[in-house]
Design the sequence.
């Protein structure tokens, strides 16, 4: 029947590559590249064609087929499938390259490091130890031709054609009949004198010595060349000499040879070998050992081979996260290995893990993801960001840990270009409004203003018109001086997004108020911004035809190209190397005294320290928006910040080190806990209710104009008119120092809106008067209640113990 006439080679699930065969081992086998028909995964196929009159070679090939199929060890060539017919033998193994070809290719690319060679030889010796000590088998063919290398750089022992049992079962060693292989036989086999009693491993260890010589010096010309170690490392020479000694009895067992080379100062005693040995046993290691290993792994990856990192370290990292509960410690080495991957590999292997990590409730993992987002953001597509990542990231805005909130704000700079209309213009603006107005940490309010200025170009035209002016105006009234600087620079960075009418009626009045600010850095930036806006208005006044050109971006759609210009005026590094928070706090150590308990963050090794500066850089754009460099006074003032690294200030990121271990569930109770926190004394929270954000789910009410406040009754004194026990002004005080008390007491922004107009309703005096009046009423009410209680107590008289007064 036709069924029995089918060709088994054609039905074999693997096919040979059309490429010419590689230089295989000497003998009957020919090595071909191949692939699996179903999946296309690469394999290696050893092919032996049965020839008439070569029965002895056929038996050797069939014996090798059987041995390779039954032996399983990590350091022996891995058998996948096979085919045996009357005409041929096919043995399918993992994709490998002969060691001789591998060494030649690496030599052309710069050569192998001793680390790689030490681990490769370690694997071959370990395979020999398994055969001799565990299986009582003699390999009888250890040489360069019997060693193969997989895609991870792992050395595999093959060439099992001439293997025989050490116990004498099945007869003696088979005859090779191949001169290229017989040159590696030990001298005691060549002369046949049997001069000394030898161990079962003696011949294989001699051949191992020949292999070591060839690895470092090239092909072995003759046996006498073994006397000269050549390029063999000095730490390996003593152990090599034991292998090629004339007395076979003195040649060490493979296990003892490994032990000697792993001794302190030995050739195989290095970080690369230790890392590989740990990875081989990682499944049985304790969780604490795994944590320590992954923490130290990142430092060593730079010296490890690229193929090893991609094909051996990366799978272990993914497995450790998926099944081993390794947590956040795998992130740093994972992203470091990811640099070696192509875009397609990154999308397939790392992005699914990153998406899953964002849904984790582990705070340590969340903050590390946010800190290292710059390394993987380019591989995320917009649907993934909006549906699987952003919904989890926004929980960080409500977190009780300031480090989480700060990193969440910074991450928006990277996520904003990929957010859709609803997430960017509605959800994100809602959280930014809350942070800028209500957060008790001044640096976080400052960073929120900075981030808004950077992503302003991505907002829709209607959102820009409603949000930017109000948000930056609010920032200029913040009691934290760097926040006021950020508000001024926010106007500067987004100058092309305002109409001439807004510049004249909304922005300039706000900036003019800052010209008498208690802080000189705020006044300096305000004067520069005023000059720039006035220059812009003057140019349009001189030539009205320029109006359309100047206002071309006002009603335009989002313009991502402007993001680069915004990046020049204020910058904290997303990676956390130097943050605007740290610089501004150190430059203004008295701006928010209640926040001085933030721990200092150590500067990572190998990275340049940030330049000390009191304010962020000024924007540099085209047209009439050329802002001058810092003037002489600013340069003189900057000398006071030269020692900012010595101050006990730092980015809020470092608070995570002491808090994350105790606060595991970041997503539960975040907003409820924040609501009950005590506000910063220097940043009083008004009594306005922000619950409408969550209750109504509408952001439009958050940007409405503030209602004008009623004028205080006649005769009411302002809070600034009282002597609050502040320090006396010095003889050389700033002429604006008298305004400091009023600024600190009355500059707190209203929390329930980013209003657009009606600046008179937000004036400091009105709010101070209202607050002072409410305080007086409470004091009077308390005194009345105390007087009534005292009166009542005096009228009734003291009560006797044990009795009850009856009416």
Sequence:
């Amino acid at each position: 029947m036709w069924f029995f006439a089918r060709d088994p080679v054609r039905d074999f699930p693997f096919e040979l590559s059309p490429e010419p065969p590689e230089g295989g081992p000497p003998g009957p086998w020919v090595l071909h590249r191949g692939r699996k028909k179903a999946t296309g995964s690469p394999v290696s196929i050893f092919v032996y064609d049965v020839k008439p009159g070569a029965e002895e070679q056929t038996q050797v090939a069939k014996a090798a087929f059987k041995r390779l199929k039954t032996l399983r060890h990590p350091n022996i060539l891995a058998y996948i499938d096979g085919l045996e017919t009357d005409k041929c033998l096919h043995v399918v193994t993992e994709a490998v390259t002969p060691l001789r070809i591998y060494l030649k290719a690496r030599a052309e690319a710069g050569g192998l490091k001793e680390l790689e060679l030490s681990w490769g030889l370690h694997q071959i010796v370990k395979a020999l130890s398994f055969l001799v000590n565990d299986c009582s088998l003699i390999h009888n063919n250890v040489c360069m031709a019997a060693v193969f290398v997989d895609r991870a750089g792992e050395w595999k022992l093959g060439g099992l054609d001439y293997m025989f049992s050490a116990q004498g079962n099945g007869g003696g060693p088979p005859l090779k009949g191949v001169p290229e292989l017989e040159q590696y036989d030990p001298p005691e086999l060549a002369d046949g004198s049997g001069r000394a009693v030898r161990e079962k491993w003696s011949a294989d260890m001699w051949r191992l010595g020949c292999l070591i010589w060839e690895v470092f010096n090239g092909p072995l010309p003759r046996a006498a060349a073994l006397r000269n170690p050549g390029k063999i490392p000095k730490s390996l020479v003593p152990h090599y000499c034991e292998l090629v000694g004339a007395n076979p009895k003195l040649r060490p067992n493979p296990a003892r040879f490994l032990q000697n080379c792993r001794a302190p100062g030995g050739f195989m005693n290095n970080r690369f070998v230790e890392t590989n040995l740990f990875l081989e046993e990682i499944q049985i290691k304790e969780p604490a050992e795994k944590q320590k290993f992954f923490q130290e792994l990142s430092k060593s990856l730079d010296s490890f081979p690229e193929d090893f990192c991609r094909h051996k370290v990366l799978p272990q990292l993914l497995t450790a996260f998926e099944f081993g509960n390794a947590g956040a410690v795998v992130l740093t080495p994972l992203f470091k290995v990811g640099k070696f991957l192509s875009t397609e590999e990154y999308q397939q292997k790392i992005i699914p893990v990153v998406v899953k990590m964002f849904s984790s409730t582990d705070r340590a993992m969340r903050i590390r993801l946010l800190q290292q987002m710059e390394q993987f953001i380019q591989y995320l597509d917009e649907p993934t960001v909006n549906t699987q990542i952003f919904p989890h990231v926004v929980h960080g805005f409500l977190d009780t840990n300031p480090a989480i909130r700060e990193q969440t704000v910074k991450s928006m700079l990277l996520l904003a270009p990929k957010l859709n209309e609803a997430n960017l213009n509605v959800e994100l603006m809602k959280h930014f409004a809350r942070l800028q107005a209500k957060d008790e940490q001044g640096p976080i309010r400052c960073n929120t203003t900075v981030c808004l200025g950077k992503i302003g170009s991505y907002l829709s035209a209607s959102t820009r018109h409603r949000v930017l002016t109000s948000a930056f105006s609010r920032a200029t009234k913040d009691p934290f001086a760097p926040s006021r600087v950020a508000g001024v620079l926010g106007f500067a960075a987004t100058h092309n997004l305002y109409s001439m009418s807004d510049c004249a009626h909304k922005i300039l009045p706000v900036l003019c108020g800052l010209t008498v600010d208690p802080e000189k850095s705020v006044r300096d930036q305000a004067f520069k911004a005023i000059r720039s806006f006035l220059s812009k208005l003057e140019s349009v006044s001189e030539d009205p035809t320029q109006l359309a050109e100047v206002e071309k971006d006002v009603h335009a759609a989002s313009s991502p190209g402007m993001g680069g210009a915004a990046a020049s005026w204020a910058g904290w590094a997303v990676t956390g190397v130097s943050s605007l928070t740290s610089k501004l706090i150190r430059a203004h150590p008295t701006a928010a005294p209640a926040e001085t308990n933030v721990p200092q963050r150590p500067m990572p090794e190998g990275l340049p320290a940030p330049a000390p500066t009191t304010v962020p850089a000024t924007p540099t754009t085209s047209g009439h928006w050329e802002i001058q460099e810092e003037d002489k006074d600013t340069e003189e003032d900057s000398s006071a910040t030269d020692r900012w690294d010595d101050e006990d200030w730092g980015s809020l990121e470092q608070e995570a080190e002491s808090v994350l271990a105790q606060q595991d569930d970041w997503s539960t109770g975040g907003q409820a806990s924040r609501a009950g926190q005590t506000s910063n004394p220097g940043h009083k929270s008004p009594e306005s209710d922000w619950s409408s954000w969550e209750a109504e789910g509408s952001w439009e009410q958050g940007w409405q104009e503030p209602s004008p406040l009623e004028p205080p009754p006649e005769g009411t004194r302002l809070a600034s008119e009282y002597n609050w026990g502040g320090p006396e002004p010095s003889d050389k005080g700033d002429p604006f120092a008298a305004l400091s008390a009023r600024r600190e007491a009355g500059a707190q922004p209203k929390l329930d809106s980013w209003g657009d107009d009606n600046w008179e309703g937000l004036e400091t005096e009105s709010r101070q008067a209202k607050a002072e009046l409410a305080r007086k009423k409470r004091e009077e009410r308390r005194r009345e209640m105390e007087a009534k209680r005292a009166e009542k107590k005096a009228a009734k008289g003291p009560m006797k113990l044990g009795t009850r007064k009856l009416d």
Q: What stands out?
A: The longest strand covers residues 42-49. The two ends are 119 Å apart (CA to CA). Confidence is low (pLDDT under 50) at residues 561-753, 755-764.
